[in-house]
C-alpha cells in the first residue's frame, strides 16, 4: 500500500482509478485497455509535473519521507563488504552516525553517514539520526584512519540536526562538531558528501565539509530547521512555510549559489517511489565526483577543498 | 517589560539611554544592587561587588586590551549583501542598516591590530549588539581576513566570541562560515601562531561549533553561557529541567571544554602572559 503526502492527493486519486480499472480489466481485457493506458499516462504526467515544481515545504516532506532510502539502503545497494566500526575511543558508541570501511565499485572506501531508521525500533536505536558528540568523534576517527590508509571518504548526510540534550552539551557537542569539520578539511584523501535527505545545520556540515558536495534533487540543506527559523525570525513557528521559502534550502537554489556542486536527479515521484534507481543515481554521482579528484596529490586535495569553501559567496 | 517600556516607543527610549548614561543607575542582574553606570564603566563593565560581567562595548574592550589602548581597526571586508533577498518581519537590508546606525559598526566582527605588552597581536571582537553577534558572510570574512593578517605579520590571534549562532537571514551562506573560518584556523595553526579564544556571554550555535571551540587555549568570562543548542530547545526536546549552572563558563571548565575562567579585569594580563609563553618571548614579571 502506497502512502501519499498531502500534496500528492491529485496523483493519488488518478492512481487509485488506475488500480480500479486494472482490477476490472482482469475480467474483461480488451474494452478498457486503451482507457487504462490513457489514465496511466495521465497519472504519470501529473506526478512528473507535480515533482517538477515542488515548493520548498513540499521538498521537506519528501526529504523526510519515511520510505525515502536511508543510509542502510545505500549500504545494501551500492557497497560491498561494509564493515561498520563502533565507538569514539573516548566515551561511547553513537549509532546515529554509522561508519566503517567498504568497497565501492570494487575499491576500498570509508563510508560515514547518519541513519534515521525506518521503523520505531531502528529509529530509537539510531536516535532518529541525531548524533551526540560520540557520533562526530567516531566520524572524525574514521576519517583520520581513511586518511592514513589513503582511502576516499564518502559521507551520506541525512539528519534533522545534532541532538539537543544535556548529555550532548556536557560532553562537548560544539567541540565535537567543530573538530569533525576540522578533520574533514585536513584530509589528504578526497571526500565526497551527498545530502540524501535532510541536511540539518551543524549536524550536517560536521560531515559535509568535503571536496565535492552533492544533493539529491528533492533533498534540503538548511542552516536551521524551518520550524526553528520561523520561531526565531517571525517569532511564530507556524510561519515555517515562509521560512522554508525565504531561506533557500533546495538543491536547485544551493547549486545556483555555488554552495553545492552537483544535483543528483531523482526518479519521477521522488526517491521513495523507486529507491533502487535513486540509490544507483547517487552511486553514479559519487563515482563521477571521485573520478574528478583522482589525479590530485595530497596537498592539492587539501588546497582544492579549502578553495572550494573559501570561494563560496565571493562571487555571488 | 514594565509599563514604561511598553508605553515609550523603542526609538525614543534609545535616545534617552544615549543622552544620560553618565549618571544613570544600573541594576545588577545578579545581585539586584544599584550601581552608578560610571563605576561599572570604570571597572570594564564588571559590577563592583557582585562581579557580574555585563556586556562591554567593542571600543571599551579594545581599549582595555592594547597598550595604552592604542590600536588600529581594520576595514570590514566587502561581501555580497543580502544574497537571499531576505525578508521576515522586515527586509534584511533594512535591518542591517539599522544595526549599522545603532552600533556604528559594519557587522558583528571587528578586527583590530595593536600591541599587547609590546608584542604585536591581532584581535577580533564579536559584538552581540550587532544582530546577536550572528555569524554571516561579513563576520566570517572578517575573521578570515584577521587570521590571514596574523599569519602575514606573524602575530598571535585572539578572538572574543559572542554570538547567538548563525545569521539566519543569509541561510546556507551562514552555515558555510563554519568550514570557511575553520580553514583559516587551520592555516593559523600550520603557521604555528597562538590562537586564543575568549568565550564571552553568550557564545552558542554554529560559532561554538566552529572557530570558538578550535582554539589552542580557551578562556571564558565568568558566568558566560556557552553551548551548542539553546537551553530552551533542549528543555523542549527532553522535557527535563536543566541542571544548575548548565552551559555556564564554569560548567564548561568542569567538563573539560574550557581551560580557565578569567575575570575581565585580569584578562589583559592573562592574555599577555599566555602569548609571551607560547611565542617564547621574554616578559618582565608583572
From TrEMBL, chain A:
Subcellular localization, as worded in the UniProt entry: Cytoplasm
GO biological process: fatty acid biosynthetic process; malonyl-CoA biosynthetic process
InterPro entries: Acetyl_CoA_COase_a_su (IPR001095), ClpP/crotonase-like_dom_sf (IPR029045), COA_CT_C (IPR011763)
Pathway noted in the entry: Lipid metabolism; malonyl-CoA biosynthesis; malonyl-CoA from acetyl-CoA: step 1/1
Main enzyme class: transferase
Function, in words: Component of the acetyl coenzyme A carboxylase (ACC) complex. First, biotin carboxylase catalyzes the carboxylation of biotin on its carrier protein (BCCP) and then the CO(2) group is transferred by the carboxyltransferase to acetyl-CoA to form malonyl-CoA.
Family membership: Belongs to the AccA family.
Protein name: Acetyl-coenzyme A carboxylase carboxyl transferase subunit alpha
Organism encoding this protein: Methylosinus sporium
Phylogenetic placement of the source organism: Bacteria, Pseudomonadati, Pseudomonadota, Alphaproteobacteria, Hyphomicrobiales
TrEMBL record, chain B:
Root EC class: transferase
Pathway involvement of the protein, from the record: Lipid metabolism; malonyl-CoA biosynthesis; malonyl-CoA from acetyl-CoA: step 1/1
SUPFAM superfamilies for the chain: ClpP/crotonase
Domain of life where this protein originates: Bacteria
Key words, A-Z: ATP-binding, Cytoplasm, Fatty acid biosynthesis, Fatty acid metabolism, Ligase, Lipid biosynthesis, Lipid metabolism, Nucleotide-binding, Transferase
Entry EC no(s): 2.1.3.15
Molecular function GO terms recorded: acetyl-CoA carboxylase activity; ATP binding; carboxyl- or carbamoyltransferase activity
CoA carboxyltransferase N-terminal domain sequence ranges: 24-286
Pfam families named in the record: Carboxyl_trans (PF01039)
Compartments (UniProt record): Cytoplasm
Catalysed reactions listed for this entry: N(6)-carboxybiotinyl-L-lysyl-[protein] + acetyl-CoA = N(6)-biotinyl-L-lysyl-[protein] + malonyl-CoA
InterPro entries in the record: AcCoA_carboxyl_beta, Acetyl_CoA_COase_Trfase_b_su, ClpP/crotonase-like_dom_sf, COA_CT_N
GO terms, biological process: fatty acid biosynthetic process; malonyl-CoA biosynthetic process
Record's keyword annotation contains RNA-binding: no
Any GO CC annotation of this UniProt entry: acetate CoA-transferase complex
Subunit composition and interactions: Acetyl-CoA carboxylase is a heterohexamer composed of biotin carboxyl carrier protein (AccB), biotin carboxylase (AccC) and two subunits each of ACCase subunit alpha (AccA) and ACCase subunit beta (AccD).
Family to which the UniProt record says this protein belongs: Belongs to the AccD/PCCB family.
NCBIfam families linked: accD
Known function: Component of the acetyl coenzyme A carboxylase (ACC) complex. Biotin carboxylase (BC) catalyzes the carboxylation of biotin on its carrier protein (BCCP) and then the CO(2) group is transferred by the transcarboxylase to acetyl-CoA to form malonyl-CoA.
PANTHER family: ACETYL-COENZYME A CARBOXYLASE CARBOXYL TRANSFERASE SUBUNIT BETA, CHLOROPLASTIC (PTHR42995:SF5)
Protein name: Acetyl-coenzyme A carboxylase carboxyl transferase subunit beta
Amino acid at each position: 500500500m502506497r502512502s501519499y503526502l498531502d500534496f500528492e492527493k491529485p496523483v493519488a486519486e488518478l492512481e487509485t482509478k488506475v488500480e480500479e480499472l486494472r482490477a476490472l480489466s482482469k475480467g474483461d481485457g480488451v474494452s478498457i485497455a486503451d482507457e487504462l493506458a490513457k489514465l496511466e499516462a495521465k497519472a504519470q504526467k501529473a506526478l512528473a509535473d507535480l515533482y517538477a515544481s515542488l515548493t520548498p515545504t513540499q521538498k521537506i516532506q519528501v526529504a523526510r519521507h519515511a520510505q525515502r532510502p536511508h543510509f542502510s539502503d545505500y549500504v545494501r545497494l551500492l557497497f560491498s563488504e561494509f564493515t561498520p566500526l563502533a565507538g569514539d575511543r573516548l566515551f561511547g558508541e553513537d549509532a546515529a552516525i554509522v561508519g566503517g570501511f567498504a568497497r565501492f565499485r570494487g575499491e576500498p572506501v570509508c563510508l560515514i553517514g547518519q541513519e534515521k531508521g525506518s521503523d520505531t525500533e531502528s529509529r530509537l536505536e539510531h536516535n532518529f539520526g541525531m548524533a551526540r558528540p560520540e557520533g562526530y568523534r567516531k566520524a572524525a576517527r574514521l576519517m583520520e584512519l581513511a586518511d592514513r590508509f589513503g582511502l576516499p571518504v564518502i559521507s551520506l548526510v541525512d539528519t534533522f540536526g545534532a541532538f539537543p540534550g544535556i548529555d550532548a552539551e556536557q560532553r562537548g557537542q560544539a567541540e565535537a562538531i567543530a573538530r569533525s569539520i576540522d578533520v574533514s578539511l585536513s584530509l589528504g584523501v578526497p571526500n565526497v558528501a551527498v545530502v540524501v535527505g535532510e541536511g540539518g545545520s551543524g549536524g550536517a556540515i560536521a560531515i559535509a565539509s568535503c571536496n565535492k558536495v552533492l544533493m539529491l534533487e528533492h533533498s534540503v540543506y538548511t542552516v536551521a530547521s524551518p520550524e526553528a527559523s520561523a520561531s526565531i525570525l517571525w517569532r511564530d513557528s507556524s510561519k515555517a512555510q515562509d521560512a522554508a521559502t525565504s531561506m533557500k534550502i533546495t538543491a536547485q537554489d544551493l547549486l545556483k549559489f555555488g554552495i553545492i556542486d552537483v544535483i543528483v536527479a531523482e526518479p519521477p515521484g521522488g526517491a521513495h517511489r523507486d529507491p533502487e534507481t535513486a540509490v544507483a543515481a547517487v552511486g553514479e554521482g559519487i563515482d563521477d565526483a571521485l573520478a574528478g579528484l583522482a589525479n590530485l596529490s595530497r596537498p592539492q586535495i587539501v588546497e582544492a577543498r579549502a578553495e572550494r569553501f573559501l570561494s563560496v559567496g565571493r562571487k555571488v | 517589560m514594565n509599563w514604561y517600556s511598553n508605553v515609550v516607543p523603542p526609538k525614543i527610549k534609545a535616545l534617552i539611554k544615549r543622552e544620560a548614561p553618565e549618571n544613570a543607575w544600573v541594576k545588577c542582574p545578579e545581585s539586584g544592587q544599584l550601581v552608578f553606570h560610571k563605576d561599572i564603566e570604570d571597572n570594564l563593565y564588571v559590577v563592583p561587588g557582585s562581579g557580574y560581567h555585563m556586556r562591554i562595548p567593542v571600543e571599551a574592550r579594545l581599549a582595555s586590551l592594547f597598550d595604552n589602548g592604542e590600536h588600529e581597526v581594520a576595514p570590514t571586508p566587502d561581501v555580497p549583501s543580502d544574497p537571499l533577498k531576505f525578508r521576515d518581519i522586515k527586509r534584511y537590508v533594512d535591518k542591517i542598516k539599522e544595526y549599522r546606525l545603532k552600533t556604528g559598526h559594519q557587522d558583528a566582527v571587528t578586527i583590530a591590530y595593536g600591541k599587547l605588552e609590546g608584542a604585536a597581536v591581532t584581535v577580533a571582537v564579536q559584538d552581540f549588539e550587532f544582530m546577536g553577534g550572528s555569524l554571516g558572510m561579513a563576520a566570517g570574512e572578517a575573521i578570515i581576513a584577521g587570521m590571514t593578517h596574523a599569519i602575514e605579520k606573524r602575530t598571535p590571534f585572539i578572538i572574543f566570541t559572542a554570538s547567538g549562532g548563525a545569521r539566519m537571514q543569509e541561510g546556507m551562506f551562514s552555515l558555510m562560515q563554519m568550514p570557511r573560518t575553520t580553514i583559516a584556523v587551520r592555516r593559523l595553526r600550520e603557521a604555528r601562531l597562538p590562537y586564543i579564544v575568549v568565550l564571552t556571554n553568550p557564545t552558542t550555535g554554529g560559532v561554538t561549533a566552529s572557530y570558538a571551540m578550535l582554539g589552542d587555549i580557551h578562556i571564558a568570562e565568568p558566568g558566560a553561557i556557552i553551548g551548542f543548542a539553546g537551553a530552551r530547545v533542549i528543555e523542549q526536546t527532553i522535557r527535563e529541567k536543566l541542571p544548575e549552572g548548565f552551559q555556564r563558563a564554569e560548567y564548561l571548565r568542569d567538563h573539560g571544554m574550557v581551560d580557565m575562567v578569567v575575570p575581565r579585569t585580569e584578562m589583559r594580563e592573562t592574555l599577555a602572559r599566555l602569548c609571551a609563553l607560547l611565542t617564547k618571548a621574554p616578559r618582565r614579571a608583572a
